[in-house]
Amino acid sequence: MEKMSVDENNISTTTPISSALATTTILIENGHNTEVENPVSETEIKKEFNIPNLNVFREWMRCICIVTLDLEVGQTMEACFPPNALTQNEELAVCFLAFPDSNSTSTENTTYSFRIPSPHVRDCDNSLNSTFGIVSFRQRKDANIKRGYFQKSVVILSTLPFVGFFHSILEIIAPLYFQDGNSVIEAACKDISEWGSPVYNKYVLLDILGSKVRGYIGSPQPQTFSTNNQQRKTTKTRRTT
């Protein structure tokens, strides 16, 4: 399988943003080529994906992505809800980081987080201009697939550094997605768009896919990250279920 063309010399590791999960940062060509190609209008997004309040959704998340393994080209973006939420370089970075560094033949679900710089992202409370990714990766044996394994990830992407909170949301979304497909992601996006704007430094009780999630929404200003110039190693903190 051909490896994706990401320069690992331009990748650095970060300190954890919470005690539960660590992150990995990938630098994307110094922020160049940040224009989204062929953007879909907000009216089309609302109509096609039944998102009643797209602006509220974007206050919480940039998008929810599905990344799969193509045996010809490697990890690819299968779907993005809503569409065209990422630049071409961000999409490449997300695909690269959406699978664990090493999964061998494990059939356990793996959850971890990463961070990519998003210098073009504005009107958010994130002083680091970063996008945080929370990943649920599933690998299962499948004799019908040439490689012998089903491999796919559900990824929440947000400019808010609430990794623990979004992990709780992903624990609800991902299993239902792997059971019922894209309709689950569309329904989740609709629910999120009805949450109302984030209220910081308070506990919240939010509806998502028939469940209620209670969590504390802290300050949108993340702690300062320390970085180095080493190549990426296995630094993601994983949870397995």
Give a brief outline of the structure.
With 241 residues, the chain is of the alpha+beta class. The protein is 23% helix and 28% strand.
Share of helix, binned: 10-25%
**Rounded Rg:** 17 Å
Order of SSEs, N→C? EEHHEEHEEEHHEEE
| Number of extended strands | 10
Q: What is the CA–CA distance across the termini? A: 28 Å
Strand content: 25-35%
Query: Which descriptor suits the 3D outline?
Result: globular
**Unreliable residue stretches:** 1-37, 223-241
What structural class do the secondary elements suggest?
alpha+beta
Number of helices: 5
Biggest sheet strand line-up: 4-3-7-6-5-10
Overall pLDDT confidence = 75
Largest sheet, described in full?
A: 6 strands, antiparallel
Give an overview of the whole structure:
- With 241 residues, the protein is of the alpha+beta class.
- Helices cover 23% and strands 28% of the residues.
- The protein contains five helices and ten strands, in the order E-E-H-H-E-E-H-E-E-E-H-H-E-E-E.
- The protein has helices spanning 42-49, 54-60, 88-97, 163-180, 182-193; strands at 11-13, 24-26, 63-70, 74-81, 110-117, 130-141, 149-158, 202-208, 211-217, 239-240.
- The strands form three sheets. Strands 4-3-7-6-5-10 form a six-stranded antiparallel sheet, with helices on both faces.
- The longest helix is centred in the C-terminal third of the chain and has 18 residues, at 163-180.
- It is globular and about 45 Å long.
- The two termini are 28 Å apart.
- The model is unreliable at 1-37 and 223-241 (pLDDT under 50).
